[in-house]
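Structure in, sequence out. Go:
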């Protein structure tokens, strides 16, 4: 019997009106969409931005076979959870086991068989050892991200590339507002996945005696919501605590304020504009 606890990664979804058929239950074909949505979340849990990872590995994954077994039905507006795990890895193929649950009740189980192949010829290739290692490590419960805290001399290349991508290219912040002299004297954190790819960064400055300031928090777009940004934030908080700071201040973009609230930060005063974007000062006591 398949149980929810069998899956390290579980994606929570809510059944939409458009997914229910004339029998007032989820149309059978939509469960494949639920599986596919959860598989995208699975790659985020692996800390692997999917498209960039496949490009780097020189291939892509193609579905060879999909099977479903129906046990019970989901209904409109119910919360369901979709589990995904790597069941087997062959020479050029891999099998993902998937299951849909309502609470602890199994609704649908299935398997997705993928073949790793060349995008140009769509001929099969061996599953890369690096991909095999990440999948195996995840299912064994190992961490997917390594956060390093060090100087700009050590981490500046990766940190600057992330900040350029997020702040200058994506958010259109002027480059002259992004770079300052503080980079050379403060602590930086960069999160790397198991392939050594930098995914997120942030920095820790001296503000006033006993108070540190966190800034320049940047996460690759495909990795947002995966926990990698929280890993960087926690590493910076730990660094502040270790050097004796009592409080940590930051200026959060208002769109990210909820993220910092969940980490224990409290808003301070009214919102204000910084670098052309609305911000909120927030404080956390260590």
């Amino acid at each position: 019997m398949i149980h929810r606890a069998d899956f390290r990664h579980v994606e929570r979804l809510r059944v939409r009106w458009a997914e229910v058929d004339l029998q007032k239950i989820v149309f059978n074909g939509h469960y494949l969409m639920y599986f596919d949505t959860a598989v995208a979340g699975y790659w985020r849990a692996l800390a692997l931005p999917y498209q960039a990872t496949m490009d780097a590995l020189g291939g892509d994954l193609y579905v060879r076979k999909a099977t479903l077994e129906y046990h019970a039905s989901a209904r409109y507006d119910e919360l369901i959870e979709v589990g995904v795990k790597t069941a087997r890895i062959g020479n050029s193929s891999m099998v993902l086991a998937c299951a849909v649950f309502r609470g602890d009740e199994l609704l649908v189980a299935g398997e997705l068989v993928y073949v790793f192949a060349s995008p140009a010829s769509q001929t099969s290739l061996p599953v890369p050892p690096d991909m095999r290692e990440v999948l195996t490590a995840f299912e064994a419960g190992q961490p997917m991200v390594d956060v390093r805290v060090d100087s700009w001399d050590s981490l500046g290349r990766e940190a600057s590339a992330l900040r350029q991508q997020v702040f200058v290219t994506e958010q259109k912040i002027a480059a002259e507002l992004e770079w300052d002299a503080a980079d050379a004297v403060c602590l930086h954190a960069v999160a790397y996945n198991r392939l050594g790819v930098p995914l997120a960064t942030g920095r820790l400055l001296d503000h006033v005696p006993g108070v540190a300031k966190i800034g320049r928090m940047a996460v690759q777009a495909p990795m947002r919501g995966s926990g990698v940004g929280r890993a960087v934030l926690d590493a910076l908080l730990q660094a502040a605590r270790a050097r004796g700071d009592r409080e940590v201040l930051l200026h959060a973009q208002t769109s990210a304020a909820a993220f910092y609230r969940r980490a224990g930060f409290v808003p301070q005063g009214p919102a204000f504009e910084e670098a052309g974007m609305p911000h909120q000062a927030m404080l956390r006591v260590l």
